[in-house]
Design brief:
Blueprint (H helix, E strand, L loop, with lengths): L1 H6 L5 H7 L14 E3 L11 E3 L13 E4 L3 E8 L2 E5 L24 H4 L4 H5 L4 E16 L5 E14 L5 H5 L15 E9 L5 E9 L9 H54 L1
Antiparallel strand pairs: 1-2, 3-6, 3-8, 4-5, 4-6, 6-7, 8-9
């Protein structure tokens, strides 16, 4: 393992673990999202699939996911367009600076939100807290045309919000045995069908860790960890740069407004005299 570290970027497993969001309680190609299907004409409802431009492959069972990172990110979507997002943080206590120079994309706290009227809550529509988990997925499924395809160790990303935000923490993070890393095992994925207060159907993702079948550290694992670490660092660096630029713009605007106020005051004094 020491040879792998020297051959790659010099980061130890412990250093990458810190960037990737810890292990237990005690710029390249875009990684596709792993989603759950809501289009019955394409595949079974609730089936897992990779969101790629190629023929999508759907599976309802036998889907294995190996997680490498676990972060929290705040995102603001407006009419299916991402307008703002925060850096990836390891927990809700960290300062989640965002691209527009604010924190958490302006998302109110739970205590604040429960005191809001429906009209006030509407102002924050589209702002959510996500659990972002990057890893590898393997499964055998079928395309919409019925062709069977096997996917093995494909890089993917989970973007989990609302009812799907908590299961990874409760199913996986809280149960990782001492001395075991998050990437040392696969999780068998499954879904449960739920309905909201309006009667609309949605699916919740669940994880069953395969602790009895640990995966040994090898070059593929190390290279995957190194790649995900570089992705996280690069994304946070871009957002931090945008945050600083937005902060400077805000300061410039405040200074310009202060100068204009001073000019208006002088003009008023001159007119009065």
């Amino acid at each position: 393992m020491t040879e792998l570290v020297l051959q790659e970027n010099g980061l130890s497993i412990e250093e990458m673990s810190e960037v990737l969001g810890g292990t237990s309680q005690s710029s390249g190609p875009k990684i596709p999202d792993l989603g759950m299907n809501y289009e019955p004409e394409d595949g079974p409802m609730g089936a897992f699939y990779l969101k790629t431009d190629e023929d999508r492959v759907y599976a309802t069972e036998g889907v294995m996911f190996r997680a490498f990172s676990n972060h929290i990110q705040y995102q603001h979507w407006d009419d299916k367009e991402l307008v703002n997002k925060s850096i990836l943080v390891n927990n809700t206590r960290e300062e989640a600076r965002d691209q527009r120079g604010g924190l958490m994309c302006g998302m109110p706290s739970y205590e604040q939100s429960i005191q809001m009227s429906p009209e006030e809550k509407e102002k924050y529509k589209g702002i959510d807290r996500y659990r972002i988990v990057r890893g590898l997925v393997s499964y055998t499924g079928k395309t919409a045309q019925g062709k069977e395809v096997t996917i093995e160790n494909a890089p993917c990303k989970l973007s989990l919000k609302r009812k799907n935000y908590g299961p990874f923490w409760h199913d996986v993070q809280k149960k990782i045995p001492s001395g075991v890393n998050r990437w040392d095992f696969n999780c068998l994925l499954s879904t449960s069908k739920e309905k909201n207060s309006y009667g609309k159907t949605y699916y919740v993702m669940h994880f069953t860790p395969q602790f009895a079948d640990l995966i040994p550290m090898d070059k593929i694992t190390y290279d995957s960890l190194a790649h995900v670490t570089s992705l996280v660092k690069a994304e946070n660096a871009r957002i931090e740069e945008a945050y600083k630029a937005a902060q400077m713009d805000a300061l410039d605007a405040e200074e310009a407004e202060r100068i204009m106020d001073a000019v208006d005051t002088l003009q008023a004094d001159y007119t009065a005299a």
